[in-house]
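Q: Convert this sequence to structure tokens.
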Amino acid sequence: MGLTEWAYSLAEELLSDPLPRRWAHSLGVAERARSLSLILGDDAELLEAAAVLHDIGYSPQLATTGFHPLDGARYLRDQEGADERVVRLVAHHSCALLEAEERGLRKELASEFDQERPDLVDALLFCDMTTTPDGTRTTPADRLDEIVKRYGPDTIVGRFIQRAAPEIHAATERVEDRLAGISTGAQPM
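A:
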């Protein structure tokens, strides 16, 4: 079984029944990842696998700390023996270090999991922040607004996402610039 087949199977097993909306989001993020294949080259499959797995830490089976990037990455590393690059992307997706800081878990996350290449971190962030909770496409501004409204501005997630907004917009712009470079004939980075 290939990397993406394994990733879809595992994510479906962990999310589809207990968290169908989270599963729909994960499928949308993975679809968005496929749309970046021209700028990802040999890493396209890696990103798609990380995209469909990025939120498995929400699964009731895995949630131990309540911080889904850490719970998901630990499960992938410790129980699944997953590709370490996939594990790193899951651990650090969508500015996770900032949320870990809000939760008092920054040291644990940073010491357990190295960061993946910045262009891949940007790509996964782009995919996550341009996909609604129901799996459809959106803009980063609308996604950020939805997250703040859903969680509340003074919650851990609300505070974190507001702090992360400048980096989310910057990463999205970097990915869009790379996509524009492909459409104008410039070489991928």
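The first helix runs from residue 3 to 15.
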